[in-house]
Design a protein that fits this description.
A hairpin with a 4-residue loop joins strand 1 and strand 2. It is built from six helices and two strands. About 4% of the residues have low confidence. It is mainly alpha-helical. The chain is elongated and about 85 Å long.
Length: 202
Amino acid sequence: VLADHRHNFSPYFYPLYLLGAGSSDLSESQGYSIGSLIAALFPLLIQLCVLLASTYAYAADNLPFCWYLATHMFVAFNKVQTAQYVLWYLPYIPLVLRRQDMHMSIPSQWHSLQLPQSLHFAGSLCLAAGGLWLYKAYGLEFAGSGGYEYVWVASLIYLCMNVYVAVHMICVEHAHSKNTASRRDDVAGMIDNFKVEVKERG
């Protein structure tokens, strides 16, 4: 259990902490300046943009993926984020993956792996980033080493890894859509060829 609730996985904790916007006691805070108001509202603006973009892009064609992406990014950019928040979007991942072809290759800038290996790669990066944050937070809380700056950097890395996982899942979804469209075109071509042969024989 965190002895100091003022830091968490979210990188917003540090600017909010410095500005005093995270304190529930006004007498302990530095006052709600314009800077603290912007710091408090900026995450909400990002979350709103993510929700609108994911809804516009995927709600009509792939509702489970829309649910997953909107929830994952909402959690990733939330002002407060702890380990249990991961449970908000984990239930959607099986719904997303059941549509995918486990044998399709997922190309990226760094690698080209089949779907299971690529998901393991992305998930491992996110877990490693979470482990780095826990290591720095443990040093701050129990060992008295480091400071909020180190935990904040670890939070930024954790956010980047969550965004990478979400972008990777988008690449998976696009690859699946492309494969599905290609198969549909192949089937349509076979049907057209069959019709032509039937007409020629007739």
